[in-house]
C-alpha cells in the first residue's frame, strides 16, 4: 500500500506537471496568436495608410494638373484665337507669314520709345520683329507704311550693346 501511495503520488505530480506544462504551452501559443494578429492589424493599418497617402497624392497631382491647365488657359487667350468656335493662327489684326504672326502697329503720335514698344509687344506675348532672311525683310517692307516725315517710323528687334548690334532673340 505504501508502494501504491508512492506511485499515486508520483503519478499525481506527473499529471499536475503535465497540466502546468500544457497551460504554459497554450498560454505561449495564445500570446503568439495575439502577437500575429497585432502584427497583421498593424500591417493592414499601414496598407490603409499607404492607400490613403496614394489617394491624397493622386488628388494633389490632379489638382496641380488642373491648376496648370488653368494657368495655360490664362496665358493662352483662347477667346482671342478662337472666336465663334473657329481657331485662327494669329490674333485679330495680326498677319501670318512663315508660321509667325506680325502686328504692324501704326497708331498716331505720341511715339513710343524702343523700350516702350518692346514692352508693348511683350505684353502681347510677342517681341519686336527679328529679320531672319530676305523673304521676311521683303514681307515686313511690304507691310509698313512709307512716311516722308520725322513723325512716323517703326522699331525693329535690334539693339546696340557695347557698340555691338544684336537681335533681341540672341
Automatic annotation (TrEMBL):
GO molecular function: carbohydrate binding
Domain of life: Eukaryota
Domain C-type lectin residues, every copy: 97-170
Record keyword Disulfide bond present: yes
PROSITE patterns per the UniProt record, alphabetical: C_TYPE_LECTIN_2
InterPro entries from the UniProt entry: C-type_lectin-like, C-type_lectin-like/link_sf, C-type_Lectin_Receptor_IMM, CTDL_fold
NADP among keywords: no
Key words, A-Z: Disulfide bond, Lectin, Signal
Leader peptide range in chain numbering: 1-17
PANTHER family associated with the record: CD209 ANTIGEN-LIKE PROTEIN C-LIKE, KILLER CELL LECTIN-LIKE RECEPTOR SUBFAMILY F MEMBER 2
Protein name per UniProt: C-type lectin domain-containing protein
Species assigned in the record: Poecilia formosa
Lineage of source species: Eukaryota, Metazoa, Chordata, Craniata, Vertebrata
Amino acid at each position: 500500500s505504501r508502494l501504491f501511495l508512492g506511485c499515486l503520488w508520483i503519478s499525481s505530480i506527473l499529471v499536475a506537471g503535465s497540466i502546468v506544462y500544457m497551460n504554459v504551452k497554450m498560454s505561449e501559443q495564445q500570446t503568439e496568436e495575439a502577437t500575429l494578429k497585432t502584427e497583421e492589424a498593424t500591417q493592414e493599418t499601414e496598407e490603409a495608410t499607404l492607400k490613403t497617402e496614394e489617394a491624397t497624392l493622386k488628388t494633389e497631382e490632379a489638382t496641380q494638373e488642373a491648376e496648370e491647365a488653368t494657368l495655360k488657359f490664362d496665358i493662352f487667350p483662347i477667346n482671342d484665337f478662337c472666336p465663334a468656335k473657329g481657331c485662327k493662327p494669329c490674333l485679330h489684326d495680326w498677319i501670318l507669314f512663315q508660321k509667325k504672326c506680325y502686328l504692324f502697329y501704326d497708331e498716331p503720335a505720341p511715339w513710343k520709345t524702343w523700350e516702350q514698344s518692346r514692352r508693348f509687344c511683350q505684353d502681347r506675348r510677342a517681341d519686336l520683329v527679328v529679320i531672319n532672311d530676305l523673304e521676311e525683310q521683303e514681307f515686313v517692307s511690304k507691310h509698313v507704311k512709307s512716311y516722308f516725315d520725322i513723325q512716323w517710323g517703326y522699331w525693329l528687334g535690334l539693339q546696340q550693346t557695347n557698340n555691338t548690334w544684336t537681335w533681341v532673340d540672341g
